Amino acid sequence: MNTTTLSRWSLRLVSLLVCLGLWQVLSARHVNLGLVTFANVPGPRDVLDAAWSLAQSSKLGRHLGSSLLRVLAGYLLAAFAGILLGLLIARGRWARDSLLPPLEVLRPIPAVAWIPLAILMFPSSELSMIFITFTGALFPILLNTIHGVEAVDPRLLASARSLGAGRLALLREVVLPGAAPSIVTGLAIGMGTSWFCLVTAEMISGQWGIGYYTWESYTLQNYPDIVVGMLLIGVLGMASSLLVRQLGALVTPWQRQAGGKP
């Protein structure tokens, strides 16, 4: 590990410790800032005790398993649909005119607004939660795919055509490699939004999952457990987005060679 890397990780560690220290002071002294009060906010020690209790219980595995399966199913469907639709819309005028307008109307609708309709549309709560996760991840992937394809240098396309490349070869050899960095960014953002949407759905219609655990803790007034649920969501979202970026870096090695960071 070189000096630059060591200093960067040291700064990150110090930043986390400062946040923990500030949290401890505000909660221990029950600071009241007027608009924001920390009178009932549990401190780091209380949250650590709650996390240890959850880790020792049999509920943790079921909560994590339920949320991970829902995210994985919805996200994979969104990745397939978002990349496919993005390629069609960016490369075909008919697709842009026929598909993009309804998608743009649906895009601003928040995940929580989909919950009542999803419950009515699907025969089980599991399918409705997967659908909400799917909608949350779809649009970042779709828009980044469109942007990446449109940003491909037209001169590269013209050169490939002059060398006899057909439509499939053009897509495989020029368009997809050129758009790959933007697609990877969309996949990473989509992973984060899929967790956000899933937790919202689980709070309302779930029986197991991290979102349900967080909401149940609030209704039972187990305040340290609320923070445990929030931190689990944050860690899972961060780790899964980082995994997507790392996998994306493996399929776009030219980005690292050019000095880009995934």
Automatic annotation (TrEMBL):
A Pfam family it matches: BPD_transp_1
Annotated GO biological process: alkanesulfonate transmembrane transport
Coiled coil regions in record: none
Subcellular location: Cell membrane
NAD as UniProt keyword: no
GO cellular component, one term: plasma membrane
SUPFAM superfamilies in alphabetical order: MetI-like (SSF161098)
Domain of life: Bacteria
Membrane topology: Multi-pass membrane protein
Residues passing through the membrane, by range: 68-90, 111-134, 226-244
Main subcellular location of this protein, as a coarse class: membrane
Keywords: Cell membrane, Membrane, Transmembrane, Transmembrane helix, Transport
Domain ABC transmembrane type-1 residues, every copy: 64-244
Family: Belongs to the binding-protein-dependent transport system permease family.
Protein name per its UniProtKB record: ABC transporter permease
